[in-house]
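U., I forgot to send this yesterday:
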Amino acid sequence: MKFPITGAFAWWRRSADKYGDAALMKIKRYVAPDMRNALRIIREEQGPDAVILGSRAIAQGVEVCAAIDLELAAGQGTLAESAELKQLEQVALQQLEREAAELPAMTAMTAIAAPPVLDEDASFASMFGADEPSAPDRSVGEELRSLRTLLEQQLAALAWNDFTRREPLKARALSELANLGLDRALALQIVGDLPAGIGSEQLQRTLYAMLARRIPVCAPPIERSGALLLVGPPGGGKSTTLSKLAARYVLEQDAANLLLISADDERIGSHEQLRSLGRLLGVRVETVIGHKALAARVEALPGRMILIDTPGAVSRDLTAAAQYRALRERCKTLQAMLVLPASAQGGVVDDAVDNFGIGVSGCCALTRIDEAVSLGGVLSALARSLLPVAYCCDGARIPDDLKPARPHQLAARAIELSRQAQTCADDDLLARRYGRSVHAAA
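Result:
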């Protein structure tokens, strides 16, 4: 892109038309490293009455064309003409300064419309900032990314504001679901399925009912006999959940039919902890290390109720997930349950559900609900993966704080936690979260 001829040339052209061709002009080309030095040289050589005709970027810096009226320079012009040309010069200089300030924005906008040309014009963006060492030296790619981000934010804000005017009830519904901490995709699905003609009085109740319908639940995986493998991230509550399941089985069934197996060979004292529980409940406890030995032991006891404690697996541990998947394929009677802490960060929950959910575990137990500040993240992950919830653990009491999962109770608890935290999504957050989606839908 060539540097545009400044607006001063247009004013000079109008001035030449006014005074006619009789006006003798002295035109000269100046080359300088930047515009400031060029203006200084022109003033020193042609005086304050010189007029800037045009400028462009070159390899050496900048090229400026300037002219002077010889009659005015010799003192033969009228005072009115002198004053008018001086005013013309001031206007031209102001125009140049404005163009200098607008050059970075012009560069970025031109680069979006056309690919950059790596020639002598590549330095025109820095032509006016060469004397300012404090100016940030950012690459063109960074500037384009920043400009794109700014434009996307502005478009998202405009789209969200337009959506709130066109669909005030849906905008309110998205705000309510954002307060619960639900992710964008699930919130948009729920709002998209709202019945037509719904009133503001029924909106909140309908939203929560639709959320509850999207929380998958299932019956307890085993009741009287079978083998259940508890897997999950470290500190998720596997041992505590196993203790609750064992205590409930002893209270409701036969303790002689229950077998506890410790397969945790990583946590110090895990075997002793399970043996202590077995002594309290009057239940047999065994230690089995290795997936092959574990599969063989489970297959040797087909009529027993077996609960298996495992070492904590990091949510992103794909190797552990593959091993548990192979174990289930080797031992068809073995069932697995993911122990998912509701108080964990959203990324930990998502990784655990993706790696240890469907394909490894048939269901999950939602633990540490009493320690969570929001259930939106874990409910979003469960709704996305369709991993059903079998148990909810709302405390550390054994076995009282172990209950079968109920979707409406989970939705009500999510609402209660949101109100306790006084969560309120502002317009900026809603625009960033939903602006692109409502713009695409429009």
